[in-house]
Structures are given as C-alpha cells and as structure tokens.
Write a structure and sequence with these properties.
Layout (H helix, E strand, L loop, with lengths): L1 E2 L20 E4 L5 H16 L1 H8 L5 H21 L6 E2 L5 E3 H14 L3 H11 L5 H17 L9
Antiparallel strand pairs: 1-3, 2-4
Helix pairs in contact: 1-2, 1-4, 1-6, 2-3, 3-6, 4-5, 4-6, 5-6
Length: 158
C-alpha cells in the first residue's frame, strides 16, 4: 500500500482510493536491475536520507563514487519535490509492489543509465515542470551511470 498520503479518499461508492501516482502498476522484481535499484534507493532515501544511500552503495563502489551517486539521487528526489506537478508517491521500503510514480522514476533513471538524454527529458516532462526536465535528465544520468559503474546492470538485485 502506498505511504505518505491521506487515509481517506471519499468516492461515489465511498471506498478509499489510492492517490494519483500511488496505485500499484507492477512489481519491482519485474524491473531491469538498475531500475529496481533506483526504486529501492529512492525508498531508502525517503526513510533514511543520503548517507544511508551512500552506505548501501559502498559495497559496490568506492566511497567517492558511492557518495556521488547518493548526491545525484538526493538532488533528483529534491527536484521531484520542488518541480513536480504533484507530490511523488512511493510505497513502503519492504513493499514488492511498484507504484505508478516509482515506475516513472525507474524509467527516468533507466534512460539516464543508457545516457539517453532525449528519452530521459521526455520522461521527466511527464511529471516535472518543463524547466526542470533538463536538470532531471542530467541527474538521472549521473545516478544511472553510477549504478552501472557499480555493476548493478549485470546482476538482478532483490
């Protein structure tokens, strides 16, 4: 179930509904390894911050690149908070579901990992204001390439 949203969403049939972006659209296990790691790191960042992300990446990267990837995630998540068209919804850290906004974030970082800036900018514009798209694509690339450097793309991490 999505976290960080009001518990009561009255509808015509009075059943609670997940807010936009929080509805499950898949499972993390079905994502590409870099995209799955990006979602898990986003959830960790929301719960514990940048240092926890850097510590999670440290076994796969030297401390400098781990901190750089963690800073890119921090900046990208903050950009989503300030330039998003609405709040970014996420699921709990241990949840196997993939929310709609998390799927968007995963695709953004996935295109960044391929250094596909045009696609990353197009994806970014679906959630962020237009003036933030280029910065989001740059940050997604920094994060995605950091995850590739860590060897994340060569193995499935659950």
């Amino acid at each position: 179930m999505p976290r960080d949203f009001p518990h009561d969403f009255p509808t015509e049939d009075s059943r609670p509904q997940a807010p936009a972006g929080g509805a499950p659209v898949g499972r993390i296990a079905d994502l590409d390894p870099i995209e799955a790691r990006a979602v898990r790191l986003l959830r960790l960042w929301c719960d514990a911050g940048t240092e926890a992300v850097a510590a999670r990446l440290a076994p796969d990267l030297d401390p400098g690149p781990a901190r750089a990837a963690a800073r890119a995630l921090d900046a990208l998540a903050r950009l989503c908070g300030t330039a998003g068209r609405r709040p970014l919804m996420r699921h709990a850290a241990e949840c196997a579901c993939l929310g709609a906004d998390e799927a968007w974030f995963a695709r953004l970082v996935g295109h960044g990992a391929l250094a596909d800036r045009e696609e990353a900018m197009m994806i970014a514009m679906a959630f962020l204001r237009a003036e933030a798209a280029a910065e989001a694509a740059h940050l997604a690339e920094a994060l995605g390439l950091g995850l590739r450097r860590a060897g994340i793309s060569r193995r499935r991490l659950h």
